[in-house]
Amino acid sequence: MMIPRWLRRAFDRYGPRRGLQIVEGDSLPARLPRRDLVLAREGDEDWCVGMRCPCGCGQGIELLLVKEAKPRWDLSVDSSERPSLKPSVWLQTGCRSHFWLRRGRVEWCD
Fold first, then answer.
1. What is the pLDDT of residues 54-70, one digit of tens each?
2. CA angle at 104 for the pair 52 and 37, rounded to the nearest 5°
3. Which one-letter DSSP state was computed for residue 66?
4. Structural domain boundaries of the chain?
5. How do residues 2-14 score in pLDDT, each as one tens digit?
6. How far is CA 52 from CA 15, 28, 60, 66, in A?
7. pLDDT of residue 1
């Protein structure tokens, strides 16, 4: 069953915030959680962060965090452990979603 876009966006805005799970290693698990982000960390080095696309299509998103990678993202976590990503996430294939993740909330770009 497809959930209407307006309902998904309202849930992203007013529903529970996304959290961050940390896994040891340089790659993401095969199955990503429904809402939370997963950070792949090896020792003290962060490699990548992954999540399911918030539009509901189910596509896995992997964003590289290592300094040498292009493109790359910066992950920050506030004192309440809510993740934020910079820059925005813009999928070039599939659903073509474009959004920011700020303080655990998805903010859609129109």
1. 988 889 999 999 999 99
2. 35
3. S
4. 5-108
5. 778 788 888 888 8
6. 16, 12, 5, 20
7. 58
67-92 tens-digit pLDDT: 999 999 999 999 999 999 999 999 99
Residue with tokens 């910079």: 86
If residue 108 lies in a helix (H) or strand (E), which one and from where to where?
Answer: strand 105-108
Q: Which two tokens stand for residue 103?
A: 């303080």
H helix or E strand, kind and range, residue 35: none
102: burial class by Cβ within 10 Å (0-12, 13-18, 19+)?
A: middle
What 74-78 contacts at long range (C-beta under 8 Å, 24+ apart), as own/partner pairs, is: 75/39, 75/46, 75/49, 77/20, 78/103
40 with 23: CB under 8 angstroms?
yes
For the whole model, what pTM was predicted? 0.88
CA atoms lying within 13 Å on the CB side of residue 33:
12
